[in-house]
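Support request, please re-run this one:
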Amino acid sequence: MKPYLRLTIFALLILFAALLRPRASSAQLDPWEFEVYPYQTLGRGTVELESLNSVVTKGHGSGGDGTSAGTLPSQAMWRTAFELTYGLTDRIETAAYLTLAKPSGRDLQLAGSKFRVRGSLFDQGQLPVDLGWYVELEYHRVPRFDDQKLELEFKPIIEKDLGSFSLMFNPIFEKVLVGPDKNKGFEFGYAAGIYYRWMRSLSPGIEFYGGIGNIRHPDPSKEQQHYIFPVIRGELPHGFEYNIGAGFGLTPGSDPVIVKFNLELEKFVGALFSPSSGMGWFF
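Re-run finished. Output below.
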């Protein structure tokens, strides 16, 4: 095995071990998006419609605990985000989201919206690890779900294929622009995944999500949120993809059990931009 591969494996093992320690994990968790982003962006001229769904089957009974960032409790909360993505170039895509939530015993409500741009750097395999980037602006319309009205999020995307395994890591840096915490600096969090490429239609994996709160003043370890999700995912006929799993909280501040179900549909509709240059590293 090449020396840089050994170093990469060693670094990733240390990283994932650290993520599992309650006092050494991540940025503020986004309960509308239990998804780990890969290095590869959507194909140029392709549109993707995605439904991101989660339900807290065992949560907390008061607001502000677990995945609740507002006054409504997380117990039995159903969250859905509809995402529309378009591949601008071979390396850059843009997307818009509508986020909805259904608290226990209430109707489905519009919670807010999100807008993002994501890209990949260089062609796959040119570096020891494949690198990408992600910038998002998130608007929370209903304070009962989240009292931070406007947030900016940035995350590097790191991916490495090792044989039949794919390892992905998304460190998350988040800043409140409008809301009670606008003067508190950046929060830090993570999304990560290890996947075994077994079959195109069925592949198992393990995902990790979490948040420590403010970078300079992390929350007490018992109040932080950290989750592990065994998942299955795959590609079905006619452009459908899925990712299903059950998440288990690793700390008292986490919701004990969350079930997620993500479904994607991709279609080519026509390109607005010419192909990216083979020598280009960004566009």
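The helical segments are 3-19. The longest helix spans residues 3-19.
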